[in-house]
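Let's inspect one such protein example.
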Amino acid sequence: MAQVVMRSLNKKYDEVHAVKDVNLDIRDQEFVVLVGPSGCGKTTTLRMVAGLESITSGRILIDDTVVNDLPPMDRDIAMVFQNYALYPHMSVYDNMAFGLKMRKFDKAEIGKRVREAADILGIQDYLKRKPRQLSGGQRQRVALGRAIVRHPRVFLFDEPLSNLDAKLRVQMRVELKKLHERLGTTAIYVTHDQVEAMTLGDRVVVMADGYVQQVGDPMELYNRPANRFVAGFIGSPAMNFAKVGVVQEGGAVWATGDGIKIKLPGPEAARLGPYAGQEVTLGVRPEDMRVANGSESADLSVEVEVEVVERLGSEILLDVAVGGINMVASVEPTVSAKMHDRLRLALNPDRLHFFDNKTEAAI
């Protein structure tokens, strides 16, 4: 197995600076997910590790070997692509065996490895079929099998599930997690889907504009986002944001804005004290807002008007207006609410986030 280290990694295409000073240590047998919006540099970073893109500056090490100038075939990696990249005229067996044949493995070893991979992936019955005779999920398994037979030190996945339907994506996420547990190989996985990132990754690397915004385990990113971008990107539905002023009044610290006046509890008051007289951004997740039952303090709630009710079975999403701000609240499925109702939503005082308006860093 292997660890992958990136040091001051940069990639430029003429005037476009696609990847900017990426420093990352991926531990042996770790499953790390690079996630971010389109154009953030995640796939370019993966392709540099694979040797499919040249490096403008910086270094990539697999174990203790600098691989900057090594061709892909000498890096002992295997890559699974978004579009499967199967040879249509070859059988499943020959697709899986192709890389081994190119490396001059003997016939018996090739057969052994292909059968082992087919057993792991449950595609033993499809080895004689052509790719056109397979479903999308089966083709994806063949692409995985072609990588598994290589016994690589590092697996690289470039959005491998994005062509599958929603139900199959969920199923394949589970299969990938089981596969990683079984093989124990270092894996780097690229996706734009934050749910995929949260469910698959031992650690998640959030990227935007070519920079790494934050690295951490999924719940660390969810509970302690480093900045407003991470806070808004991780979590579904997304975090609600509102501009508020920090006011010291009557011995207390308040966050006040359009339709919002919240008395901040002790820890938040201490954090926001230096921002008195300034404007910051309040962040609150939809699941940290609930319909008030009358026992909560009015100082930790907001008056809202319901604009849309989305009944999802296990929860109800309320699209609400707070003054001139639109927010989403995730409430119990037993809540009775309809459009244009006026409600009071209580906020969880232990789950409020605040961000500096200039730097967008978490306060």
User: Anything to note?
Assistant: The longest strand covers residues 16-26. The longest helix spans residues 166-183.
